[in-house]
Amino acid sequence: MDLHHFSLRQLREGLHNKNFSARELTETLLQRIHTLNPQLNAFITVAEATALASAAEADARLAKGESGPLLGLPMAHKDIFCTADLPTTCASKMLENFVAPYSATVVERLAAAGMVMLGKLNMDEFAMGSSNETSYFGPVHNPWNVDMVPGGSSGGSAAAVAAGLVPVATGTDTGGSIRQPAALCGITGIKPTYGRVSRFGMIAFASSLDQGGPMARSAEDCALLLDAMAAHDPRDSTSHPAAASDFLRGLDRPLQGLRVGVPEEFFGEGLDPEVAAAVQAGIDQLAKLGASVQSIRLPNNPHAVSTYYVLAPAEASSNLSRFDGVRYTHRSHAVENLDDLYRKSRYEGFGAEVRRRILVGAYVLSAGYYDAYYLKAQQVRSLIREDFRRAFAEVDVIVGPTTPGPAFGLGAKNADPVSMYLADIYTIAVNLAGIPALSMPCGFTRSGLPIGMQLMGDYFADDLLLNVAHRYQQETDWHLARPNLQTGEA
Amino acid sequence: MAFDQDAVRRTAHLARIALPQEEVPAVAGQLEKIMALVEELRAIPTEGVIPMAHPLDLEQALRPDLVANQDARQRLMANAPAAEHGLFLVPKVIE
Asked: What ipTM does this complex have?
C-alpha cells in the first residue's frame, strides 16, 4: 500500500474504512521523512512527538464517529507560520531559537480540523529567494533531480509534497513563492486572492503582497486544504469579510464557454522553448474541453519585476526592523552599546540576501529618493492592476507559463541576484494586483524536469481556477507522475 | 545612477546593519545591479496615476472594545536573549 502517493480523498476513505489508523498513517510518513529527508532537506523540524499525539487524538475522534473532511490527515507547515510550542525559524539564524507565544490562525484552523502536523518545512530565509538556497539551514534539493533547486521560497513545501513526505503543505506567496516551486517540483499550488487567508501569525515579508495558500499533488487536494485555511479573521485587518468560500462545490463544472486569454507578453524572449511548447499543449487541451482561446495584452507586465523590487524591499525593510536583538532574536555578544547591539545582531542574524533587500528598501524609502522610486513604483502598480481589469472584462482566465524555464542547478544563479529575480518574471504581477493564480504541471522537459502552467483569475475567482485545473487534471495525467527516489527499500 | 560605497555605508547605517568595510565594495556592486533593474521605472509615464498602496479597497474594520489578549508575558519573555526581573536587558544607555 503506497500511502505516500494517496490523495487526501483516498486517505480519508482508508481511515473511514479502517484500512489503517491515523497513527499508522502518521508513522508511515514519519518513517518516509526519516528515510528521504537527508537527501532532500525539506524539513527544518520534524515534530514526531506532537504528530503522534495529534494522530492519537484524531483516532479517538474517528472512533466516536466524527467525519470532518481533514480529520486525521497529515500535513506540514512552511516554517514561516508560527506554532506555539514548536520552533518557528523562518529559515533564519535570527530566529534559530524562537518559539512563538501563539499559533498562526492557519495553524489553529488546520489543527482544529483534526489535521496531523508532521513538522516545519524549509524555505528561503524570510521567504526571500527563488531557489531555497538562502535558507540558514541549507538548500532543499529537487526530488526530480537532487542536483537541481526546488524553487522558492516555499521550496521545502514543494519538495515534501512532490516526494510524498506529506500529501499537502502550506506555503506563502509574495512574488511567486507558491507557484514557482510548485512548477519546478511538478505539483499544484494556488496563491489565493489577497485577503482570503489570514496573515495572523505568518511572519511578514511584504505585507501588501504576502498571501498563504495550499500546495498539493492535485487541484482537488488544494481545494480541500484551502477550504479549511480561508476564513475572515478579526486578528488580521487585511482579511477580507468574504474570505471563506466552498472551493469544492464548483470543482466539476464543465469548461464549455470558458474564455481563456493568452498574454503575448508571457511568450516572448527568454522563455524556454520546451516550456513554451508544453504550455501551448496545455492551452490546446483547455480548448478541447470547450474553452475559447484568444490572445490578450498585459502591456505593463514587463515592468512587474522592477516595480516589485522597489515595493517588496521597502515593505521588508520596515517589517524586519522589529528584529533588533533585544526581545526574541539572535543577539550579538561583543557589543559596546545599544546601537552596536542592534547593528551587529542584525548583521549576524540576517543572511546576505535578506540584508541586500533591507538595504534596497531603506534606500528607496530614504529622503530624496522616496518620490523617484517608491511613489513611482506604486503608480506603476496601479497600471499593472489596470491591465488585469481590462483583460478580465474580456476573458475569465489568463493562462501562461509559471516560470521562464524548468528547475536550474544548485548554485547556478547565486553570483548575480538580478538573474535570480528574473525567475519570477511571470508570477510577480499577480501579487502586485492581488488577484489569485494557480500553477499546475503540464509536461516535462526531455531531461525529465516538470513544467508548470499558470492560471490567473479575477479577484475572488479562486474557485474558478481550481475548477479549471481540476477539469484539466481529469483529462491529463501530468499531475500523477512521481519522481524516482532512492529509499533504500526493496 | 552610481551606487557607490558611501551610499552603501549611509544606507547600512539607516538600516542598522553593521556591514564590515571589506564587504562594502561587493555589496555596492550588487545594489548597483538591483538599482539598474528598477531604473527603467523612471521612464514610464505616470502623470495623474493614483499610487496603489494595497490590493483591496477595504474599510478599516472595527471590533467591539473588549479585552481579547491573554496574558502571554511568560511566553514572550522566554524568548528574550537576556532578561532579569521580567525586564529585557540591554547594554547601559544612560551614563
From this structure: 0.94
